[in-house]
Amino acid sequence: MDSENQVRIPNGGYLIQDEYSAQDHVITEIYPEVSSNFSVTTILNYCKEKMLNPYLRLLSIISLRPLINMQEYSPIVDFINCTYVVFSIFFMVLGYFLQYMSCFRRDRGFCYLVPNSNVFEEMRNSDKHIQERICYGSTLFSFILPSALHFVAYLHAIYVIRSSDDDQLPILMERVILASSNLSNGFVIQKKLMRILSLFITVSVIWMLMSTISITSLITEGNIEFKWIPIERSTISDNSLKILLVASILWRDMVEAIIISTYCLQSQLLISYLFFLRERLLQYAVDPLNWMRDVEEFKKMLHYLNNEVAISISIFTLVNISYALSGTLWLFKLDFVDRKTLPIVGISVLIILLWISISAIPFIQAIRLTNACRMVKEVGQQVRVMPFVHSDTPRSELDSVLLYTSSLKIHAKLYNNVITGSCFCFCIVVSCIVLLVLGMCHYLSF
């Protein structure tokens, strides 16, 4: 039996103890960072403990997975899980409501008038239409529609991940590790893959920290008015509302960052899976039929990513790009209605960069996945002309591989459209041209 038990040791390694040798206390000290002679089970368990399991617990925190997982059905556990989902949804809705009450816009911050203006002082002394002097503009486009789209994307992510028959991420990681174990440099590639996956999680954490800094800076800049709540409120209630507002905004950002990172992780695993399949076909004389079956399994996982997970990502990206463009136009004073809000230039630029970065990452991953799909479609021709590896393989089987790979229709999709690098670069070029023309026509000034 190949089953092994792991025990963590202080310097980052693991103690792997075979079940049959437990009586003799025969223990082998394992360091995955420096050695490459491990079984597939050992490496897979190491990857799960180091990266996958903590990330799955993070998904449970935002209600994408059950908070408590049990093999057997328990009414109490089921009630706790359902209650936590309801609480998460309620807190999300409360955050949308508090943002409207405080007139906090995600693209530019609090829409206050300039404190030194005479109009502001005059309206401060008036006890009528207090909120109108703060939340001017379109409530529908500034608050209702962005919040509704964000909420729909969150609900869809919960439905997709919870309604799937199995856990896509753990199964995908297992397949990738198994596919890479047969390569000559499989362990080195596995270490590189783990570093890339950890990088996506690290970037998500950094994004949330930078978002926290920007929100906290905006809130501590001045007084905050809450609609329907008297201005003359106590310090405790005022601080409580501010803390609740910050917590709800950070919860919203954390949910979005984790869902987008889930898409990026699955995309990266699919990219690596294709790379491993390609290398296995090029390095070894494998059975073409079994190799085609593996590609068919990849197509199922790609279909899940394109037609299930990508819907939430597309909605999030739509809202994020809108925030980035709206904040940019407002910073350049091209918003003909909101000319009275005083921007904090450094924080405003940070907010715009945050929205641009979280919008671009899914597109970059989709482009990389499409390029990997194109690479596999071309591998049939490479195999057909290789002189040594497949010299003993019948030409009819190689012709079948060539015909199969050339007819593959695999690519990454967002907004139900194929995402390629040329399209992405074209959009960037058009945006730069528009920005340059606006500057030439004196719509932009510094």
From TrEMBL:
Signal peptide: none annotated. The chain crosses the membrane at residues 76-98, 134-159, 171-189, 196-219, 257-276, 309-332, 344-367, 418-445. It comes from the Eukaryota. Keywords: Membrane, Transmembrane, Transmembrane helix. This is Gustatory receptor. It comes from Cryptolaemus montrouzieri.
